[in-house]
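SAMPLE LOG
Freezer: B-3
Tube label: C17
Construct: single chain, 612 aa
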Amino acid sequence: MAIHELKGQIGRLPEQPGVYLFYNEAGDTLYVGKARVLRDRVKSYLGAYGTNPRIDALLRDAARLETIVTDSVVEALALENHLIKQRNPRFNVLLRDDKTYPYLQLTTNETAPRVLVARRVERDGSVYAGPFMPASLARQTMRLTHRLFGIRSCNEVIDGRRDRPCLEYDIKRCLAPCVAAVCTLEQYGRAVGQARLLLEGRQAELIDGLRTEMVDASLDERFERAATLRDAIRTLETLRDRQQKMSTPALGDRDAFGVKVGPAGAVVQVFQMRRGRVVDRVEMTSEVVSAAIDGNDLRGLSPSEVTEAAVQQFYAEHEPPPDVLVSEELAADVREPLELWLSERAGRRVHIVTPSRGDKRGLVDLALRNASLSYDTHFGDGAVVAFEALDTLRRVLDLPTLPRRIECFDISTLQGTNTVASMVVCIEGRMRRSEYRKFAIRGVSAMPDDFASMEEVVRRRYQKLLEQGGPFPDLILIDGGKGQLTAAYTALRQLGLDRLVAVGLAKQEELLFRRDRIEGIALPHQTPALRLVQQIRDEAHRFAVTFHRAKRTKTALRSELDDVPGIGPRRRKQLLTTFGSLAGVRRASREELDRVVGPKTAQAVIDYFAGR
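STRUCTURE (predicted):
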């Protein structure tokens, strides 16, 4: 067994807190773990064979061991979390949440803060709220901060020296902190504070403050301001009443984790409660728990291990509340370092509790029920088949992770004319029609061949993704063989993205081609993996052909009159209706044309045909 070859090194490990890393013979990181005492923790692996399939597979593959000593177990936990996110070890529990929804960012690190839509939470000093579901709610809320509180929407550097405010001030959508005589930074700061209350869902507190300000404005006979505040209060009360939230005031601020682990994977449901209200629900599913390793499943993974990983990974991007409720009891040597780490992140004491009764237990039970329902949804029969197909592709193509997001490209043309391309997206084994894209190939005369067209469309697609910051696919599927695949990688190299994995799928042989292999890869017939790639390829072909036919039809219906300056669809229809055909328009006199389209356009028509 490979682990026993490291026995001598393990015996010399320090008796200090730190992080240990197992590597395989290829140098890939297999597992990252933390320990209060490195020697004791790693030594426990020597007698761990046979405890569960996951540990057995790890011990068989481990060929090298490294350790990093830290000053405390809290530092070890933070370092472990960082290394797991950076290296994606095969045997660690990797969880991903279901939030592709936007956040709102209050840029409190600016002199005059703004409210912006953000796709991810950064550690930049700003305040983030969300995620917002549906995504349109984020922009609606952002516009509400402009209308109710006058938060600015421009990107100017605010120093108060501007001569006069812009139109946004005139239409009462900005307080104009750019003009110090109109609005001081202190006044603007009060508006920012109100906007922050709105973003954090603290409507009751916000409404109380606005009502007090409305009364003061009325007493000072600033009736227009009082009316504006009255309307804002009504809007916020309506927004508050429409929110479907559970409320238990005694619970205050806390999060509840419910964990469901089964043979196909793991699901974690996190209910976030703020000021006694459940304001959001985040779902996290396993990245590796459901994967087969060397023919063994990972059913030996315990719910407490998943809970530990979920707490670490969730609060790496979220602010911890005072109480974290978990459905699985954590051992003291696991819970205490986690509590210290969370307390350091929050700047106050954070407790991890497993409640047994009362309202707290009711909240945990709610999270557990939702986790069980979600598990059935994710890992039902259809999901299991999709997972089997994705896992087969991962193993056959030697991918680092499951290809959860696959993007497929196809070219459609007719003898080099009206060349178009399509891109379809498959996520978790299901086609995502809302993310399909179609491309009209530019410079067709210069690039009439499929290879150049494929290079162009791949370059355009991922250049835009670079500007947007993703999401990038786990696998790119090219409809074609070696030539199209080479063209795609040419575009990816130009963008510095040749680390992305692309494969070509030849139509006749149904072989997968990789850039690092001369021969194609044949997937077994009638397997979920082959059916999946065929489905994706066929959908890309259908989408491309449909777009090509529409473009060809539009070209066929085009009239020569469209080339005449000043002739649009309406005047073209008038001319053809009046004179019957293009030949009739060509034969018409100036007087006849004047009566239909006017003298200026009539002269343009005459000049156009005179030059033909």
